[in-house]
# Entry
Amino acid sequence: MAQCSAHHTCLLLWHYVRANPATFFVRPI
# Structure
């Protein structure tokens, strides 16, 4: 369960970064 949740969060982050690369560079997580 925990691994699935972490993986889902990672995917969301990945898509967010791809959609907003500038934001990622300004505020890296």
